[in-house]
Structures are given as C-alpha cells and as structure tokens.
Amino acid sequence: MTRNINIKMPDKVKKIVGILYRSNHEAFIVGGCVRDSILGIKPKDWDITTSAEPEEIIELFNSEGCTTVPTGIKHGTITVVIEKEPFEITTYRIDGEYKDSRHPSEVKFTKSLEEDLKRRDYTINAMAYNDKVGLVDYFNGQEDIDKKLIRAVGEPKKRLEEDALRMLRAHRFSAQLGFKIEKETSEAIKALSVNIRQVSIERIREEFNKILLSNNLVQLFQLYENGLLQHFFGELANCFERSKKKGDISIYSHVYLIELLQSIEKELSLRWAILINYINEFSYNLEDTLVKPNQCKYSTTSQDCASNILKRMKYDNKTIERVLVLAKYQEVIISDKVAIKRILNTTGIENFKALVEIKEAKIKLQSENDINEGMKEIVRIKEEFYEIISSNQCFTIKDLAVKGEDIIKLGVKPGKFIGEILNTLLDMVINEPEINEKHILIGKVKEQMDTREI
C-alpha cells in the first residue's frame, strides 16, 4: 500500500537514493526515520533499504568516489561514507530461523520490498519512503501511529520469538512516544517474557536506560506487569509486587515512585539513585520477600545491594560511584552550614546540587502544609550553599590554608599521620571558617603535636 505523504530527506540521503535508482535499483528510507518524520520528530539516523545486493552497493558507490565499509555484509548491510558522514544501506532480505532468540541463523536476499518490511518488528517501523513512490505501508503503520499503538508485524508471538529484545523495545517505544502496546502484542510479551534472559545484559541495560530517561515512566510498572522486569531487575519487581498487593499510596507506592522520577531532571544517575533509594526504603521482611537469582540478598547492606544491582547490569564505575553517593545521602538531614560542608566534602558540588534537587522533588509530592514547610528548608539550604561557594569557604583538605609539606617542615614524618592531621584541621575549619589562615593552623599543629591530640 502506498500513500501520498512528503518527507523531507537530507540532501546526502537523496543523493544515495538517486545513485541507486539511476543504476536500476530500488531504494527507500526505512524504519525509525520514516516513523519519526511522520511524527514530526527529527530522525537521528537515516537508514536506507535497497534491492541492490551488497557487492553491487560496494561497486556502485566506490565508482562514485565514496568510501564503503562492509559493516554487516553477512546480513546485507554496507556503510557508505559521503563527505565524512556514514549511512547504512541494507539489501532487501528474508530472515532465516532465529535459533538464539536474537539473530537469524541466515538471511536470503530478495527483490521484494514487502518481504523485507514483513520481517520487521512493529508496524510503525515497517514503513518505507522515497520521493518517487511516496510512503509504502503494507501493514498500516501510519494508522497505528494515528491510534498511538505499538503493534507487532504479523503474528505477535512469532515476531517476538524471533528476537527477545523486541519485547523490551516495545516498552521503550511506548515510553518514548507515549503509545500503548496493542493487546495481542502485550499478551505475547507476557507469554514469552522469560526469553528476555537470552539477551545480553548490555542490550537490556541500553533499552532500560531509554525507558528510564523518557517522559512516560509508567512503563517501568508495565515492564513488571508484562513479566519482563522480574528477569533482570528483580529487586524493583519485588517492590512493585508488594505495592500492588497492599494497594499502598505512601512512599512505597509504585505510583509515588513514578511521579517522583518524572519530576526529576532526565539524568541517568539521578533517576537511578531514586530507584535505589526506593528499593532500600521499602520495608522488606523475610516472611514475604522472595529472593530470586537476580536479586540482592537483603542481609547485605543497602550500599552493597545497590552496588550489586549496578554491577550486574554492567554500568561503568563512574556511574556506579555517582549513583551510590546520591542514594546514600538523599535522606540525610541538612541542618546547617556545617552539615552542608561535611556533605560537600564527600559528595562534591555537582552531587550536592543533585541531592537538593531530589529533596525538593520529594517535598513537592507531600501535602500542601508539608510542601510549604519543606520548601522553606530548601530555600535555606540553597542560600547557605551559595554563600559557602561564593565566599570560598573551606570544605575539603585541598581548601585548607596549610598543605602536607607545611606540616612536614614542622618535623612530622611523611605518612598516614599527615593525613590524620589535615583531616583534624579540616574538621576545625568546617566548624570555624575564620581560622583557615596558615599561621593559625600551623599554631594549632604546634600546640598539639607533643600530645598527639592532632
């Protein structure tokens, strides 16, 4: 089925399509770029599908002076570089059997665009377009866009059995686009959810990240409802299970969690810190907590549990460290400037700002009276924080007016004791900012060296 619709393609994409057509090959933009163009979203990538076979693509574009890279030649994909910009061109194909629930064991090239589109995951991704033919939409993808539906191409169970990651992608598209997963497709996900275990945790993590950074975080709960979350993030699934059973509307409710996450900046570490804190705050008791293979054992400390979750999902160390800091300190009471400086010493400025943002978001979900009182506290914390920063008050060892070498000159041997002295001086200065003068601190060291009180 073709439809009259106009998609403005970049000049380089038009050039690629034109080169293929002039050599008697069909060529279309396909997939996400077509979907996003219809939705008025600027595509991130422009994928091209063609009746030309890989060797023909290479020969043709090499003759045009372009660089070609056989990035996925086995599956018919060639990367063509035009003016330093790469574009993927893939031959129409029919996929063979998916033996590992992820990749076809073989592919067969075809001259039929319909056959190629038939193998794709969802109707909204199974459309093709060029300026000559217009929109090619055999599976009513544009209608499903109008209805805001995520629907599998063909028989849902077969489509999802082929590639288990497609189940998570359905939820990701739903989260990013605000679409609903069509009933039969959703039922197929529930039936096949255990197959997600066959997907690498790295691929799961990337899809989960996109859901977590979306505007439609109810999909976190839908992942649980469709049985996917249980297989890679059992700790959160367990919380949702108990929240659902109890009909809880407190801070342990999944509704509260979703509202809180959506009120926070779209920054991965912040949102993960809230998830971790939600799990840690949830009142587990051993009688009704089922510890599964992909869950922490709750006899470990909260920090260990958080670390285990993030390491299991193979986040990088920098992300793990930031999440652990934000999770650990988001419930700490910030009573005065001294408390602010002590937290700053551990977290740093950017993490402290993030902690205040999380606190503010939590306050705004409270009752009106509590909001008023809580926001007064937030204003105070922000004012005191900015005063500390603007007046260059000391809150780390490197801000002290004395350095390790100054203490060594007093006759203290280099070693662990130097660090102890500096930490003691920092504690004094945090309480009394005015004593952060070199001569005063040197005097403090001299006074107490003999007694080893410092």
Automatic annotation (TrEMBL):
Keywords, alphabetical: Magnesium, Metal-binding, Nucleotide-binding, Nucleotidyltransferase, RNA-binding, Transferase, tRNA processing
SUPFAM superfamilies: Nucleotidyltransferase (SSF81301), Poly A polymerase C-terminal region-like (SSF81891)
Gene Ontology terms for molecular function: metal ion binding; nucleotide binding; nucleotidyltransferase activity; tRNA binding
Cofactor(s) of this protein: Mg(2+)
Residue span(s) of domain tRNA nucleotidyltransferase/poly(A) polymerase RNA and SrmB- binding: 178-238
Pfam assignment, any one: PolyA_pol
Gene Ontology biological process terms in this record: tRNA processing
UniProt-listed NCBIfam families: PRK13299.1
UniProt similarity note: Belongs to the tRNA nucleotidyltransferase/poly(A) polymerase family.
Database matches in PANTHER family: CCA TRNA NUCLEOTIDYLTRANSFERASE 1, MITOCHONDRIAL (PTHR46173:SF1)
Name the UniProt record assigns to this protein: Polynucleotide adenylyltransferase region
Native source species: Clostridium cellulovorans (strain ATCC 35296 / DSM 3052 / OCM 3 / 743B)
